[in-house]
Amino acid sequence: MIYLELFLTFFKIGLFTFGGGYAMLPFIQEEVIAHNWMTTEAIIDFIAVSESTPGPFAVNISTYVGSEVGGILGSVCATLGVAMPSFIVILIVAKCYDKFKNSEIVKGCMTGLKPAVVGLIGSAIVSMILTVLFPNGLSVSVFSSPSFYVSLAIFGAMVVPVFKKVHPIIIICISAVLGIIAGYALGL
């Protein structure tokens, strides 16, 4: 039963999300937490891992959640669930592309979807920031925690390389090293 539930949950996520893995993030968080499969903190931790592993983000996170919930078969079910809608849609689009590529309705739909995708990605970013910087909620006590300042410093240090167009792999590696050093130095 859990395998069918994993498949259907991730199929729904894959079917109703436009804009790739990051746009899926709010839906993934909501569904995983609603099913009590993982905590918000565990999801945030895996987002960091998923960013530093090869492959599409949505596939990585669905595989991980499936593995945590249902082992190897669970990871297969969740991964197939999240990937299958895109596969089906791409087959249909490829078959019908010439018929609707100049349609005003399709152009209008794409124009409307772009801002929605940006909003979904922005929502995921805000959710991650709140979980990373304010794990116990917004309170004055957060500002006395060394982990708050370490996270803020690492974030700030990584903003410069991003705007300097440093390769993302280098940024991920530097962030990981800074996190390890801070973790050992401060006992985080």
What is the gist of this entry?
The protein is an all-alpha fold and 188 residues long.
Overview features:
mainly alpha, 2 domains, 7 helices, 188 residues
List the helices and strands in order: HHHHHHH
The coarse overall form would be globular
- Helix/strand/pairing category: mainly alpha
Query: Strand-residue fraction?
Result: under 5%
For the record, the count of structural domains works out to 2
Please report the number of helical segments: 7
Distance between the termini: 39 Å
Radius of gyration: 19 Å
Q: How much helical structure, as a percent, in the residues?
A: over 70%
Number of strands: 0
What low-confidence regions span 5 or more consecutive residues with pLDDT below 50?
none
Main pleated-sheet profile: none
Q: Write down the overall mean pLDDT.
A: 83
Overview of the structural elements:
The chain has seven helices and no strands. It has two domains: 2-133, no CATH class; 137-188. The chain has 188 residues and is mainly alpha-helical. Helix content is 80%, strand content 0%. The relative contact order is 0.11. It starts with a helix and ends with a helix.
